Amino acid sequence: MPNTTAKLTWCKARIGEDMNWWIHEISDPIHWETDGLGIIDPRQFQHLLDLLEPLNEYGLQTDLVQEAFYSFGIDEILEDKTVLLKRVQDNILESEDPLFALPDVLDEEKGPYADLLDHVTKLRIKMLNDLIDFAQKLTVEELEEEIRESQTGDFLEGRATHYFTELTSILEYVPEGFELDDDEDSTPKSEDEKLEKDLANVSAGTDPEETLVADETMKWDEEEDEEEQTYEEHTTPPDEAPAEPAK
Length: 247
Description:
Helices cover 34% and strands 16% of the residues. The chain is built from 7 helices and 8 strands.
């Protein structure tokens, strides 16, 4: 069943310098702390589904995936350069619309998202042990230790670990010195042209607290430079005009 939290109806997000989306404001500030709260964009979520697909033959429970996220759709780009996302009750695994996915982390240790992390970690280890001939069986503890070390490094450097990074770290995990032949490019992709255009309209500035949002009325500097260069190439300055031939 879809998550139903009455107070969680909308949130405002901005894209950070790391090109991940972060919650700036939320309709339920009592239960949700926005500091370091990330949200997974539609392209990233589709990429996660692609990474989850090989785990189907190892017992992936899709209901855990569905229950682990709250679904949000793009409503509008606001004047303060944030994107307003409205809560929707669509099944995030079956919806035809591109949806943002907010992990259910109200209970970080025993909640739906924590259950999903535990589930996919076990399946990833099971798959790796099946596909790679290790001298000694790989364990869940080894993967979890490596993930913790990475997150600790982020914390010490003053960064929050984004949920997309956390999930991909598990779903793409291979011990050092080994590799899987079928590993693909880790860049999220989407076949939804409208979505790609919408997401391309938001780009991170040098300051992670500021975001440049492009709309149809904005002129990109690159286009202006190209127009100026074309004009100069087809215009001969008066002082460079060719001299008349001598009589």
